C-alpha cells in the first residue's frame, strides 16, 4: 500500500478539508477538526433514494482517502497528546502482569510433545516439540520472531504436521487481510520449500500417504473460502487439482481430518445450512462422497468413532441441537438415529470423543457444563462447577486413547487454568494456572456476580459483573459495559489481566449477554437476528438503564464498548439513547449495514444474508434502514466517541467507520470528543504482536479514564 500523503502539499489538504475551529470542552487552544469533503452519491433501490455524501471514502488507493485518514489520525494524536505518558504507563502496567517467558502446557501427538512458548521481550510465539519425553531435546518448528522480521504485521496459523512427523504445512499472513500463503517445511532438514500457495485460509490437511495435502482457497475479491484443492508434494502448484468449488455464494467451505484419523472431510456451511463430504484418509485420490445433502435450515456437524459417525444437528426442530448416530455406510439424514435427545432448556454445543468415553459440552441457563459418559454406559456424570460467572470447556484433546480429559476453567475473578481430569478415577490435576505478575493481584480483592435486567418486552437479560471489593456501588462509580450480540457468538464471563487496570482504578466491568448471542441457548440467538435484530440493541440499552437504576453507576459515568458486529451495536445504541453514556468505544464497527449488504463484492456479504437479511428484498431493506447506524445519524448530541479501524480490515472495511465519523462530524450538535484512529498497517484483529496489541488497549482505556478525570 502506498502512503503518499506525506508528500502531498499543504494546498492539497486545504482542498480536501474545510477548516473548522469547533473546540471540545477540554481544549486549551483552537484545533482544526478534520472535515471530509462531500460528494453526493445517490443510492437507489426499491423506489427509495439514499444520499451518501461520503461514499468516495471507499477507495483505499485514492490519495485523498489516505489523506483524510491521516488527518484524522493526526487530530486524534494531537487531542490525546496529554494522555501519551499515561498510555505508556498503562501499557507497562498491563505488560508487567504478563509472564514474558511463558509456555503452553505440552500436549502429545503421534509420539511428540508440542509446546508453544514466548521469550522475554519477544512479540511472537515459538513453536517446538520434544520426542517421547519432556526431557528430550527441544526441536524448534517455527520461530515467529524470526519469520516476522521486516513485516509490520505477521501471523502464522494452521500448522499441520504430516502423519510420519517429517513435514509441516503452515500458513502466513503479512498484510492482515487473512489471505495466507501455505508453505511446507521439512522438519528433518529445516528447509522451507520455496513453493507458495497463495490466497488460502492458511490451513492444510494431510492424507495418510504423507505426500498429499488438501487446502482451501479464497475468492480474491470477496475473500469467501470457496475452493478445495489437492496438492501432491513434488508437483508444481499450477497442477494442483480442484476438488470442490462451492458455487453458492452464501456458503463457505473448509477441509479437516476426523480425530479418529480415518476420514478427510470437506464442509460447506452457511448461517442456516450445512453439508459435508468425505473420503478415507488413506485414499486421497478417491472421489468425495456427500454425507447428507444440504437442506435449507438443516445444520449438522460430524465426528467419527469406531464404525459410526455422530451427528450434532438441529434436525426435526431440535432448536438447541441433539446428537444422532449413523453408520459409515449409510450417512444420509434418513438413516440418523437419535443418540442424545433434544432438550428445551439445554444447548448442546459439542462432543469430544475418546476410546472409552465421550464428553458433551452443554450450556444451561448461560453456564457451561461438561458431561462425561462411558461408551458402555456404566458411568456418567457432570464435572462440578460451582461459581455463577465461570467459563469452562474442552481444551486440546488430540489423543484418542487416553483416560484424561483436558479442559480449561476461569472466572471473572480467577485466572485461566488448564486441568487434566482422569475420567475413570475422577481425579484432577491443575497443570497450569495463569500467573498474574506484578505482585499486586489477589483474587480475594475482587467480586463478581450475575444480575438480570428486564428488557422492554419483559425478557430477563443476564449481566455478568466484576469489580474491586473497595468500589462503591452507590451510583458514583464508573462502569464499562461490553457486549457483542451477533452470530450466536457468546461472550462468556472470562478473566482478564488487562481489565485489572480498570478495576483497580474503581471501574465496574459488565458483560451484557444480549440477544443475538447464544448465552441462553439457540432461541436467544434466533431472537436477535434478521427481523428481530433490534432486540440486541434495546437489550443493551435496557441493561444500561438497569445498571443506573440499581446504583451501579450513572449516565455521567457509564461507558459502552463493542467491536465489529459489537461496533454495530455501539452505533445503534448511540442513536437510540445517546444520553445514557458519557463515552463509547466502537472498535472496527460494522455501521453501514445497507450499503455493505447490497455490495456482494465485499468480503462476508453474501454469506451473511441469513444473519442480517438480504436488503435486495424490500422487507429486509426497510427493517435494516431503521437501525443502520450510518443511515440514522441525526442532528443531536452524541457521547464522547473513540472509533478504531484498520486500513486492511477484511471483515469490516475501513470506510464504514471512516464514513460514520465524517457524517457524525457533520451532524452532531455537541462539543464532545470524536476520534477516528486508523491503524494504517493492520486489519480486523489489530496489531499482531502480543505487546503491540496491549498498546491499542491502553489507548482505549486512556480514552475513558481521561473522561473520568483519572489521568494525573
Descriptive keywords:
712 residues; alpha+beta; 8-stranded mixed β-sheet; 7-stranded antiparallel β-sheet; 13 helices; disordered N terminus
Account of the protein in words:
This protein is α+β, with helices and mostly antiparallel strands and 712 residues long. Helices cover 17% and strands 33% of the residues. The chain is built from 13 helices and 37 strands. The strands form 8 sheets. An 8-stranded mixed β-sheet has the order 30-31-33-32-34-35-36-37, with helices on both faces. A 7-stranded antiparallel β-sheet has the order 7-8-9-10-11-12-13, with no helix packed on it. It has a 4-stranded antiparallel β-sheet with strand order 3-4-5-6. Helix 3 (84-96) crosses helix 13 and helix 7 (534-549) crosses helix 8 (565-576). The longest helix has 17 residues, at 63-79. The relative contact order is 0.10.
Computed over alpha carbons, the radius of gyration is 26 Å
Query: Into which percent range does the helicity of residues fall?
Result: 10-25%
Mean pLDDT: 91
- Overall structural class, as computed from helix and strand content, comes to alpha+beta
Number of helices: 13
Q: How would a textbook summarize the main sheet?
A: 8 strands, mixed
Task: Give the topology, please.
Layout: H1 10-16, E1 41-45, E2 48-52, H2 63-79, H3 84-96, E3 107-109, E4 112-117, E5 126-131, E6 139-143, H4 144-147, E7 155-161, E8 167-173, E9 180-186, E10 197-206, E11 212-218, E12 225-232, E13 241-245, E14 252-257, E15 263-269, E16 274-280, E17 289-292, E18 300-305, E19 308-313, E20 322-327, E21 337-340, E22 346-353, E23 357-364, E24 367-374, E25 380-382, E26 390-394, E27 404-411, E28 414-422, E29 428-433, E30 446-454, E31 460-468, E32 479-482, H5 500-503, E33 508-512, H6 522-526, H7 534-549, E34 558-563, H8 565-576, E35 583-587, H9 593-597, H10 609-612, H11 618-625, E36 640-646, H12 655-667, E37 674-679, H13 692-707
Parallel strand pairs: 32-33, 32-34, 34-35, 35-36, 36-37
Antiparallel strand pairs: 1-2, 3-4, 4-5, 5-6, 7-8, 8-9, 9-10, 10-11, 11-12, 12-13, 14-15, 15-16, 16-17, 18-19, 19-20, 20-21, 22-23, 23-24, 24-25, 26-27, 27-28, 28-29, 30-31, 31-33
Amino acid at each position: 500500500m502506498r502512503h503518499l500523503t506525506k508528500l502531498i502539499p499543504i494546498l492539497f489538504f486545504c482542498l480536501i478539508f474545510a477548516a473548522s475551529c469547533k473546540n471540545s470542552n477540554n481544549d486549551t487552544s483552537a484545533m482544526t477538526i478534520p472535515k471530509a469533503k462531500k460528494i453526493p452519491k445517490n443510492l437507489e433501490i426499491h423506489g427509495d433514494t439514499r444520499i451518501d455524501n461520503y461514499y468516495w471514502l471507499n477507495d483505499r488507493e485514492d490519495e485523498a482517502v489516505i489523506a483524510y485518514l491521516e488527518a484524522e489520525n493526526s487530530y486524534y494524536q494531537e487531542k490525546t497528546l496529554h494522555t501519551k505518558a499515561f498510555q505508556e504507563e498503562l501499557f507497562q502496567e498491563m505488560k508487567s502482569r504478563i509472564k514474558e517467558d511463558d509456555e503452553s502446557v505440552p500436549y502429545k501427538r503421534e509420539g511428540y510433545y508440542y509446546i508453544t512458548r514466548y521469550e522475554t521481550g519477544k512479540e511472537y510465539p515459538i513453536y517446538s516439540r520434544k520426542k517421547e519425553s519432556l526431557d528430550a531435546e527441544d526441536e524448534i518448528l517455527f520461530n515467529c520472531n524470526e519469520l516476522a522480521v521486516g513485516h509490520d504485521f505477521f501471523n502464522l496459523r494452521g500448522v499441520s504436521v504430516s502423519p510420519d512427523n517429517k513435514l509441516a504445512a503452515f500458513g502466513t499472513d503479512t498484510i492482515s487481510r487473512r489471505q495466507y500463503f501455505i508453505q511446507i517445511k521439512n522438519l528433518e532438514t529445516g528447509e522451507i520449500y520455496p513453493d507458495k500457495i497463495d490466497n488460502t485460509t492458511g490451513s492444510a490437511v494431510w492424507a495418510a500417504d504423507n505426500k498429499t495435502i488438501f487446502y482451501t482457497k479464497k475468492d480474491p475479491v470477496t475473500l469467501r473460502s470457496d475452493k478445495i484443492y489437492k496438492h501432491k508434494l513434488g508437483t508444481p502448484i499450477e497442477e494442483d487439482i480442484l476438488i470442490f468449488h462451492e458455487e453458492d455464494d452464501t456458503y463457505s467451505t473448509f477441509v479437516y481430518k476426523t480425530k479418529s484419523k480415518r476420514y478427510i472431510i470437506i464442509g460447506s456451511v452457511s448461517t442456516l445450512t450445512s453439508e459435508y463430504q468425505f473420503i478415507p484418509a488413506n485414499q486421497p485420490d478417491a472421489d468425495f462422497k456427500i454425507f447428507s445433502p444440504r437442506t435449507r435450515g438443516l445444520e449438522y456437524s460430524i465426528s467419527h468413532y469406531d464404525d459410526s459417525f455422530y451427528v450434532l444437528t438441529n434436525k426435526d426442530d431440535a432448536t438447541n441441537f441433539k446428537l444422532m448416530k449413523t453408520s459409515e455406510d449409510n450417512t444420509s439424514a434418513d438413516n440418523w438415529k437419535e443418540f442424545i435427545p433434544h432438550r428445551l432448556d439445554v444447548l448442546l454445543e459439542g462432543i469430544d470423543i475418546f476410546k472409552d468415553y465421550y464428553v458433551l459440552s452443554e450450556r444451561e441457563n448461560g453456564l457451561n457444563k461438561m458431561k462425561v459418559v462411558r461408551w458402555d454406559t456404566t458411568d456418567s456424570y457432570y464435572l462440578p462447577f460451582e461459581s455463577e460467572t465461570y467459563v469452562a470447556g474442552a481444551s486440546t484433546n488430540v489423543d484418542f486413547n487416553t483416560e484424561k480429559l483436558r479442559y480449561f476453567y476461569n472466572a471473572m475473578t480467577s485466572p485461566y487454568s488448564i486441568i487434566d481430569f482422569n475420567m475413570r478415577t475422577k481425579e484432577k490435576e491443575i497443570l497450569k494456572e495463569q500467573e498474574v505478575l506484578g505482585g499486586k493481584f489477589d483474587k480475594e480483592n475482587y467480586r463478581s456476580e450475575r444480575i438480570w435486567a428486564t428488557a422492554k418486552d419483559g425478557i430477563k437479560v443476564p449481566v455478568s459483573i466484576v469489580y474491586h471489593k473497595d468500589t462503591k456501588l452507590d451510583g458514583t462509580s464508573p462502569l464499562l459495559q461490553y457486549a457483542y450480540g451477533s452470530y450466536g457468538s457468546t461472550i462468556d464471563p472470562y478473566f482478564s489481566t488487562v481489565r485489572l487496570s480498570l478495576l483497580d482504578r474503581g471501574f465496574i466491568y459488565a458483560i451484557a449477554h444480549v440477544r443475538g448471542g447464544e448465552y441462553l441457548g439457540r432461541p436467544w440467538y434466533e431472537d436477535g437476528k434478521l427481523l428481530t435484530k433490534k432486540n440486541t440493541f434495546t437489550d443493551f440499552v435496557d441493561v444500561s438503564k438497569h445498571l443506573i437504576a440499581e446504583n451501579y453507576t450513572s449516565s455521567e459515568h457509564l461507558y459502552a464498548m463493542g467491536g465489529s458486529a459489537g461496533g454495530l451495536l455501539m452505533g445503534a445504541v448511540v442513536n437510540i439513547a445517546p444520553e445514557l453514556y458519557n463515552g463509547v468505544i466502537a472498535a472496527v464497527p460494522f455501521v453501514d449495514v445497507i450499503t455493505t449488504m447490497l455490495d456482494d463484492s465485499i468480503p462476508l456479504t453474501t454469506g451473511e444474508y441469513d444473519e442480517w437479511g438480504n436488503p435486495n428484498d424490500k422487507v429486509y431493506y426497510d427493517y435494516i434502514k431503521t437501525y443502520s447506524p450510518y443511515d440514522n445519524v441525526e442532528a443531536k448530541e452524541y457521547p464522547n466517541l473513540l472509533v478504531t479501524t484498520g486500513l486492511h480490515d477484511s471483515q469490516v472495511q475501513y470506510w464504514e467507520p471512516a464514513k460514520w465519523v465524517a457524517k457524525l462530524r457533520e451532524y452532531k450538535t455537541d462539543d464532545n470528543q470524536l476520534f477516528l484512529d486508523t491503524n494504517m498497517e493492520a486489519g480486523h484483529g489489530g496489531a499482531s504482536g502480543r505487546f503491540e496489541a496491549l498498546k491499542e488497549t491502553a489507548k482505549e482505556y486512556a480514552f475513558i479514564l481521561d473522561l473520568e478525570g483519572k489521568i494525573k
